[in-house]
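Q: Please design a sequence for this.
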């Protein structure tokens, strides 16, 4: 009987001394997020922080961005090769800004993405089309 208690004690001691393994969340990589953001509407909508800062400014005036009228962003700034457009991407650890401007025209777009709790989100979007 003592052997059984001794075996149980050793087993409990061994289990109690094992290193507990926790899950470590790896921060999402921006490039992977950016690809999926421009390919998947449901994913895109889930990664826009509404109410979204910024606005659309056009000939008919200004308007805010609303989830119910959101249109898919398919064009990646990284894919624009037309020489009539100036593009810029500013990368920081927790923020990426992409900008597009049509030369000699009143069109400019600026978007800001931020990493929040390890995931990337669109937090600012401004379009000027005059």
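A: Design:
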């Amino acid at each position: 009987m003592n052997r059984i208690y001794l075996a149980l004690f050793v087993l409990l001691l061994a289990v109690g001394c094992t290193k507990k393994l926790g899950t470590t969340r790896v921060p999402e990589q921006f490039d992977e997020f950016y690809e999926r953001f421009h390919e998947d509407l449901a994913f895109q909508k889930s990664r826009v922080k509404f109410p979204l800062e910024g606005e659309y400014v056009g000939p008919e005036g200004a308007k805010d961005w609303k989830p119910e009228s959101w249109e898919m962003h398919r064009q990646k700034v990284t894919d624009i090769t037309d020489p009539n457009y100036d593009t810029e991407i500013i990368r920081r650890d927790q923020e990426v800004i992409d900008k597009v401007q049509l030369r000699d025209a009143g069109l400019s777009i600026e978007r800001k993405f931020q990493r929040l709790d390890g995931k990337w989100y669109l937090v600012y979007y401004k379009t000027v089309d005059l």
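Q: Thanks. Anything notable?
A: The chain has a mean pLDDT of 88. The chain has three helices and seven strands.
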